[in-house]
Amino acid sequence: MNLTSAQINISWFCDFHSNKKTSCPYCWVTMAQSDRSRKLDHAAEEWLTAIRRQIPESALIDFVGGEPTLFPKFRWLVEELSSTHRWSVTSNMSGDRWQSYCEKPVGNCLSWTASYHYTSRDSIHEFAAKCLITSRHYPLSVNVVDYPTYDAPKAARFLEDYGLKVFFSPFEDVRNLNVAGPVPLTCNGGMTHILVDPEGHVYKCLSQERRADRERWRLGNMFTGEIRWPSKRSLCFIPCDAFYVLNQQHATADMWELDVREADIAENVNLDAYRETFDVPATPLRKFIDESAWKGRTTDQAKGDLLHLPVVLPASDIGTGCGNCGGSPA
Question: Domain spanning 5-317 has what CATH number?
Answer without folding.
Answer: 3.20.20
